[in-house]
Give the backbone structure.
Amino acid sequence: MKKIIILLAALTSLIGCDKKEPLSSFALLSQSDGAQKITPISPTENSAFDLEIAIDSTQRFQQMDGFGYTLTGGSAAHIFQMDAVPQDSLLQALFGTQKGALGISYLRLSLGASDLDEFPWSYNDLDSNQEDEDLSAFSLSKDTLYLLPVLKKIKSINPKIQLMSSPWSAPKWMKSNQDSRGGELLKKYYSAYALYFAKYIKAMGEEGIKIDAITIQNEPHHPGNNPSMYMGSTDQAEFIGAHLGPLFEKENIDTKIIIWDHNADEYNYPIEVLNDPEANAYIDGSAFHLYAGSITALSEVHKAFPSKNLYFTEQWTGAPGDFEQDFSWHFEQLMIGAPNNWSKVVLEWNLSNNPQLQPHTDRGGCTRCLGAITIDQNKVIANPSYYVMAHTAPFVRPGAFRIHSTQHDNVPNTAYENEDGSISVLLYNKDEKEHTIRISGLEDFFTFAVPAQSALSVTFSKP
């Protein structure tokens, strides 16, 4: 009998806390050097402390939608090709909401191919010099091979999981260069491309898959990927305001429209789009990556448009992975930094890869993208971004509100009140020394000894 080998044991029977206790805690600790990974720890008996984090649940900020990954076509194929028993065990461990499961609550999909597919494709591919403005040739056929079967299994495990879809490119025949790589969307096809989004959302709905949000273009200022497409801010505003938004309204499509979906260094791009009143009326918010810029740039967009939502939608880990650097950076910058700068979703890049880091497209596809897990037939190995998520998704559930917590330069942190009334705190000790940290503002004080360069995630149950 084949066995699935998966590094999830530390979570298997430990997540959760006894609601019958007047006030209790559950905490996991990971050290960046890997000496401890998602190790359960208890508060110290000693009341002495050298740093305090005070929680105030009366100060509420954004409500969280969830945490997760991108389920690329390649990721779905690796999962689909597993044997039934280990596949089910893996999906339960990743997407289940029972005690011990990771509880991934949000996924990003590629609307058409991404660069982690075997080759570039769209839902409306045609021969050269042809066009199909009515999209009579539209088909989800390639998604039926791997993505849809896996998604349906995930939905059966967690029916409430939310989904965002992002296109890497429009169909080639709609583009200025007639190529999957680079080029721009021709204005004469703006209406056809809006219909492309609408048909996709409706077709996925017919398969039982609700698309909660779409971004207009993955990395619109990176035309060197394959597939990819350049789209300037004025073009994005025109496309939304005059075509996509009105069509969604006419067709009663409630899928959220999200702009930008690229790096934080160009935060003026979403501001420029939101400054367009016609586009603004249809836009839910802006999405960011952090391959350039500072995570604090998200707050600049929030200041300019406080009623619009913010999303963090992608960050890769490069193979072969460096646990010490990857874990510390991703946990501090993304899992703590992004929500502290108003993001309501935090997504790492691809969910899974195989040992050969395939598939990927030619002419720009990512050759070093390391998934959260590596799948080698029925063997599954956890990579750095898995452990980052293990410190986050089980502790901060959909519907949680970020709440006030005392900030320290050397111990960045974030806090939440979950819908069940529990309070969760995520912190990272950046110092070269151990800190004894008291968490206050609850019914009691809790003190934890946190080693240097370590993450602590803790949930407190309320009386």
Observations:
- The first strand starts at residue 24 and ends at 31.
- Residues 233-250 form the longest helix (18 residues).
